[in-house]
């Protein structure tokens, strides 16, 4: 595929509906998902790669020495959380990869659109300089996207005229 058009695809309304339904199904299968407040995640201790071995050792010791487990810890719930963590980690990786690919594709498509818009804008600008019908009006409207550039050019022209 050309560098100018890395993505050439369409989605039908049926495809969009099916994707949204699939996402709704995924969400319905995970009714316990939480949304943390800003910064709350940073405050939570993490069970990352280095801490996993600590958890594995704790699991072994809890099984061998249940008399050392504090009374307020529900071992069945902890084991349920451990199983859920493993399952959610797999689901999260898959969803994260899909989300990243979606965001990357959106970025490329947006880039392609903006490059086409800029090429059109430059062509209109040249047309306005040459007095082509309607080009000046279109250029005036589109040039609002780039405020200040005309003012800088006008100021430079004034300085050059004054010299």
Brief account:
With about 160 residues, the chain is mainly α.
What do these coordinates show?
This protein is mostly helical. It has one domain (48-162). The protein is built from six helices and no strands. Helix 4 runs antiparallel to helix 5 (135-142). The protein is elongated. The mean pLDDT is 89.
Number of strands: 0
The oligomerization state is single chain
For the termini, the CA-CA separation is 52 Å
User: What ranges have pLDDT less than 50 throughout 5 or more consecutive residues?
Assistant: none
The radius of gyration is 29 Å
- The total of helices stands at 6
Structural class: mainly alpha
Q: Roughly what fraction of the amino acids lie in strands?
A: under 5%
Average pLDDT across residues?
Answer: 89
Helix content: 55-70%
What count of structural domains?
1
Please describe the biggest sheet, giving its number of strands, its sense, and whether it closes into a barrel.
Answer: none
Anisotropy-based shape: elongated
H-E order? HHHHHH
């Amino acid at each position: 595929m050309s560098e100018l058009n890395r993505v050439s695809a369409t989605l039908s309304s049926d495809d969009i509906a099916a994707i949204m339904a699939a996402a709704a199904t995924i969400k319905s299968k995970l009714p316990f998902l939480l949304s943390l407040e800003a910064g709350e995640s940073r405050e939570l201790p993490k069970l990352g790669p280095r801490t996993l071995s600590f958890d594995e050792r704790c699991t072994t010791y809890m099984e061998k020495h249940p008399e050392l487990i504090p009374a307020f810890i529900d071992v069945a719930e902890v084991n349920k959380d451990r199983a859920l963590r493993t399952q959610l980690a797999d689901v999260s990786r898959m969803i994260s990869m899909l989300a990243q690919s979606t965001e990357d594709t959106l970025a490329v498509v947006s880039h392609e659109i903006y490059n086409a818009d800029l090429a059109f804008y430059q062509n209109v600008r040249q047309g306005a300089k040459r007095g082509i019908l309607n080009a000046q009006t279109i250029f005036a409207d589109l040039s609002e996207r780039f405020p200040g550039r005309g003012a800088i050019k006008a100021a430079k022209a004034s300085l050059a005229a004054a010299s």
